[in-house]
Amino acid sequence: MEQTQLVAPPPVAVDVPSISLRAVTKSYGPVHAVRDLDLEIRQGEVVAFLGPNGAGKTSTIDMILGLSRPTAGEVRVLGMEPTEAIRRGLVAAVMQTGGLLKDLTVAETVAYTASLFPTTAPVADVLARAGIAEIGDRKVGKCSGGEQQRLRFAMALLPDPALLLLDEPTTGMDVEGRRAFWNAIRADAQRGRTVLFATHYLEEADAYADRIVLVSKGRVVADGSAAEVKRLASGRTVRATIPYPDEQALKAIPFVDAVEIRGDSVLLHSHDTDAVARHLLTHTDARDLEITSRGLEDAFLALTGNAPVGPSGELA
Amino acid sequence: MSTIDLSTRRIPPLGGFNGTILGLETRRLLRNRRTVIFTLIMPVALFLIIGLQSQFVHQQAGRGNVSAYVMISMAIYGAVLATTSGGAMVSLERSLGWSRQLRLTPLAPSAYIAVKMVVALTLGLLSILIVYAIGVASGKPSMPLWIWLSTAAIGWVGSLVFAAFGLFMGYLLPGENVMQILGPVTAALAALGGVWMGPMTPGSTFQRIAELTPMYGLNQLVHAPLTGDAVHVAWVINLLVWLAIFVIGAAWRFRKDTARV
Predict the structure, then answer these.
(1) Structure pTM?
(2) A177, A197, B26, B93: most buried, per Cβ within 10 A?
(3) Does B98 touch chain A (CB under 8 A)?
(4) What is the ipTM of this complex?
């Protein structure tokens, strides 16, 4: 594993946010893809960008990559114009599809991309890290979807970018591939790389992001850790065992929104389950406490008004 | 947690133009069987079929023989096809999203165009050299050495017009197989420009139509050393006007393509 490239001398701009969007609006004629969006992402954060189709995710990513300009507002990447950050190899992106020449081999594609940057990680190391060293001589057109995605990942890692944008990065990968992919991303982020990924997979956002930014209709509707976002929408549930529960007494506990009694088992819904749990443990005979979230899907539904689709939590 | 140092980041010289991509792009073009057949093999085959006929070998044409005249025609036809193919590669790259991918690198759009032009001209030169090499090997075309050299040079430089043409069409037309359209178009332009025939009669209807088409200027200029004809200003104007049209067209479509909207 080549790590020397990533361990930097004292950084100049630790405090500069990796991404800063201020009052950004993007309109296509009468259609407002992004409305007055504010977002600041610190260096080293792994952020999931979640939202239904048409929420403005791709428009926002295009502006961060300098592929399009905001209609109003300001986009800054590491304190620079996005195109300037691109020219310095500070930003890289992995797109869902396309962006590859079928008639080049895997190794040639990486060599081509590497030649465009003044300095890069060694090509052989990048191929090895992306797990495609052994298919270097294969034509890109003959690679599977997963192999092509690993190639895109290798290309993105070449300039050792400070910011990595991933648009639906694991579409078409099997479960094992997805896990390996995310482990590599997490390991990278620990060395200071900021990662923003758009995804349809709720469990990916839940499992791999430090922070979830939920967008709907061009605005941020929730922003926080996975647990915070879930609680924001639906609160959590405290489950406890209480002999002979008294419904009225339980409803009177501060912060309790709703009570369900099933024999000795009690389910208390609340936006502050910590306070409820503390009360139960100090003022009642309750035991076997469990606190559970109602799940990101419920939060997603409540906050965006769009139903998640599919048993695996994949959104339409 | 370490942070990635922003201060060490430089911008590549020449907008990212470099030898590695020139080599890889040339290799790509030569890997395309259709391109190789049409730009490198077909002109040679046409020369072998037409140019080696015994009446052409024995018939004089200016400072050489008709066989040499035909060889020059086929060489520029190959060069025109080659440079058009090279320029038109951008169409495929746009449809595959490769152009967009390149916009996420430091490669300047102008450097990308420069790469395409150089690669197109490389293939064009290759096409001319192969036809001439076969001509030498056959021993049939006859003309002084300086005409071999000057016609090759004129044909090559003049094919730049069609590198611009290919680029313009590559930006204008969608899809992966633009050459399926441009192949026949180029053949038609060659016919209109007089490439498929001997010297045309000045003032004839055909000549008046021909002189408005893009291959006319190049065809007249490239044969001039052999025929010994004085160079007409109209030929040079034809070449330059079409070059301007294709460059302006390509620049217009290119700006549209890379515009940040």
Answers:
(1) 0.80
(2) A197
(3) yes
(4) 0.87
